[in-house]
Amino acid sequence: MTTSLVDVASSDVTLRGFLHGLPGVDRVGADQRAAALATRSIKTTAKAQAIDLAISMVDLTTLEGSDTVGKVRAMCAKAIHPDPTDTSVPRVAAVCVYPDMVAHAVRALAGTGVKVASVATAFPSGRSSLAVKVADTTMAVEAGADEIDMVIDRGAFLSGDYTKVYDEIVAIKAACATAHLKVILETGELATYDNVRRASWLAMIAGADFIKTSTGKVAPAATLPVTLIMLEAVRDFRLRTGRMVGVKPAGGIRTTKDAVKNLVLVKETAGDDWLSPEWFRLGASSLLNDLLMQRQKLTTGRYAGPDYFTLD
């Protein structure tokens, strides 16, 4: 694969050839590798560090039709101080909301360092025109969003119309201006590991700052083998281009054990450079309370009561 990635994107035939020329994924090997890494145990001191790192990587999210300004403000308060009784708990990486809630989140998080992310591009289906998707993105960016989470057109991808998917990502990236772009692949609908690898490379070639597994609305979501394949993709993309791209597994990550498994996967697959909120995120709001409970257990020797932390 000696063709430059600029040339790859210049024609549908070349792009298709490049993506289908990527090495196929050994499904059994990927499953076994992910399962083996999931059995790694870590010592107490390392676990405490891993919990704080995982908290700092969380994108705290509310994406419901029933979202209110009050709910968004409450979530922002939790993002800044996940445990108000313990100031040593790190803040989370970002708060993710619908575009119409961005301005409220921006005001609530001003000066805290917590990013505001927004799902755009007809989330979660992606079934709309490019003009609507660009307008959705522009609205969120103008309201102050630091990050945009877009969904690809899975129908176009699965029918082999890679150029349409590429062109949409390029257009949304341009609409992002200085905001970072996370491209959601919705891996639960891609059917094969080969498709996950192709979609990862397609998104990165088009300019994604992050590649993200899922919307959280489709199962299966962030499985370890899928995250492994995406981590391999960003590692290999960096070797080829010199550009780092982040990874965000989202959906189905609910426990501290799940989070630690993902951190081990990052270290052993992509390397230490990705072990920061700048390059790895966890899209799992329900995870935060379990991380806080486990953190308190390490600190005090006992678990908090079920109503100690706020519900998300």
From TrEMBL:
GO terms for molecular function: deoxyribose-phosphate aldolase activity. Its EC number is 4.1.2.4. GO terms for cellular component: cytoplasm. The keyword Lyase applies. Pathway: Carbohydrate degradation; 2-deoxy-D-ribose 1-phosphate degradation; D-glyceraldehyde 3-phosphate and acetaldehyde from 2-deoxy-alpha-D-ribose 1-phosphate: step 2/2. It catalyses: 2-deoxy-D-ribose 5-phosphate = D-glyceraldehyde 3-phosphate + acetaldehyde. Pfam families: DeoC. Gene3D superfamilies: Aldolase class I (3.20.20.70). It comes from the Bacteria. It is an enzyme of class 4 (lyase). The keyword Lyase applies. Belongs to the DeoC/FbaB aldolase family. DeoC type 2 subfamily. NCBIfam families: deoC (TIGR00126). This is Deoxyribose-phosphate aldolase. It comes from Sinosporangium siamense.
